[in-house]
Amino acid sequence: MHRILERMQTDLLDALGLAITVYDKRHDTHPAVLAAQGVGAELVDAQLAGIGGPVPDALAHQVPVLSLDLWTDDRWPELTLAAVRDRAPQDESSWEQVHGAAAVPGVWADDATVVVCCALSQPANAATVASLINYEQLVSAALITTAAENATAIADIITVLQSRGAIEQAKGALMGLVCCDADHAWKMLRTASQEFNVKLRELAVALIEHISGAPAEQPATGAPITPDDRTREAARLMWAALSVEPLRQ
Amino acid sequence: MTNSQFRLSAAEAEQPPVVTVSGDIDLANVNEFQEVLNGAAANSDAITVDLSDVSYCDSAAVRALFSVAATTKLALIVPAAGPISTLLSISGLDRVATVATRD
């Protein structure tokens, strides 16, 4: 991870802080900084402590987040130079130089997300986000490999990349059906997978196939995810229950 | 997903090329979306993307738009209210692209 951060630093010359934050929802703990450079760790900790900022927003909405000037951005009124300086006065000279920031989220396992972020001495631009998008893919691949640790690593990477697409699609369908945000859709999927005791990625595939009446789109690599009858039934029940709800109100 | 979902109109006089999108943009067709964007940006230093008829778009589309905005001046046309303009303001894409609304 630190080697990836070093490469990022050479790519993003204006970076005052870089951080990789992971959030493993299986353990229902809080998001945590996995690796950081410069003032990255302090900045992410401040945002996660309730002040708000690009990192919590990227986690909640699962979209890349860009800010031209972090301290004056109207999306996070509590994220100010004074607030961060109070939390970490030892880095005062760096805080005064921070302007732009960006955060890019990704999913690397059924219940685990990652956010790659940077704080810059210049306003962030679209190229900053494009660069972080590349590094997020590198980080996610590294996380998967580390998690697998052995001969199953390749198979796991393929499975995760496959389920990533299916889970995104299923989340999108749920967001449309019940008009909720990405985080809420994610929680519904997770709760249903626990209640029916079926794998989340298989439930996602079953859900898409149930809605569309056709096989879910999956990458050509590896064995496609094929949900069993129990998972399909779970998807059918979940969709039916959610579809009926608004009529009763 | 057919090609007609992404329509590219060539540059005219002083106007940059326009990519007009309809329907859903998600993981199933985002690569195609990206290719059309890149194609439009390849011959022009500015492009306009009309999203007013998009019914759904998510993180994948936002990523594609950020990456094309990294190489060209991007203008977006979006519905005045609704999930797409929310997505733009959450992501901050509205701060690096010009955004015009259409009712």
Protein model, in words:
The complex is a heterodimer of chains A (249) and B (103). Chain A is of the alpha+beta class. Chain A has two domains: 2-148, GAF domain (Beta-Lactamase), CATH 3.30.450.40; 153-248, no CATH class. Helices cover 56% and strands 15% of the residues of chain A. Chain A is built from ten helices and five strands, in the order αββααβααββααααα. Chain A has helices at residues 2-11, 40-51, 54-61, 81-87, 92-97, 126-148, 153-178, 182-195, 200-212, 229-248; strands at residues 15-24, 32-38, 65-67, 101-109, 112-120. In chain A, strands 2-1-5-4-3 form a five-stranded antiparallel sheet, sandwiched between helices. In chain A, a hairpin with a 7-residue loop joins β1 (15-24) and β2. In chain A, α7 (153-178) packs across α8 (182-195) and α7 (153-178) packs across α9. The radius of gyration of chain A is 20 Å and the shape is elongated. The relative contact order of chain A is 0.11. The model of chain A has no long low-confidence stretch (mean pLDDT 85). With 103 residues, chain B is of the alpha/beta class. Chain B has a single domain (3-102), classed as Transcription Regulator spoIIAA (2-Layer Sandwich), CATH 3.30.750. Chain B is built from three helices and five strands; from the N terminus they run ββαβαβαβ. Chain B has helices spanning 30-42, 59-69, 83-91, and strands at residues 6-9, 18-25, 46-57, 73-79, 98-102. Chain B has a five-stranded mixed sheet with strand order 1-2-3-4-5, with helices on one face. The relative contact order of chain B is 0.17.
